[in-house]
Sequence to fold (156 residues):
Amino acid sequence: MMTLEELYQAGRKVVTGSLTFTAEDIVRFARDFDPQPFHVDEEQASQSLFGGLCASGWHTSAGWMQCFLRFWKEEIRRLAAEGLHAPKLGPSPGFKELRWLKPVYAGDTITYAVTLLEARIVASRPGWRINTILCEGENQHGEPVIRFESKVIEFA
Fold:
């Protein structure tokens, strides 16, 4: 089984996918998880500091995970076709420095990426590694909209 560090060179940015945020998706997500006026009502949003309907930061974050999971399933398939075993990734023990850098408006397409920053062996857990990754997204104009650093557990 490969390690994430063997698969992706530290510092190399890998695009994981893109997601277009429709007005309907923004409102649907916001109604359930972040029902602030600028996320659920186009008219009120136009009068807000954002000037238009925009996605919740949590929606933008969930979009990163959606694209990453789709990407990772495809990576597992790709590696298997080459006769290789993908690293077994587990949960994240947390993240830090979450920044919503620019609003994501209805119609924006966000392209997400991941960069391996560091990988270390967990001395107290044989076969475990902790990977530190930089998670990012930018809109169709190349403007950064989200950035955070996350930890991901890897099992042997």
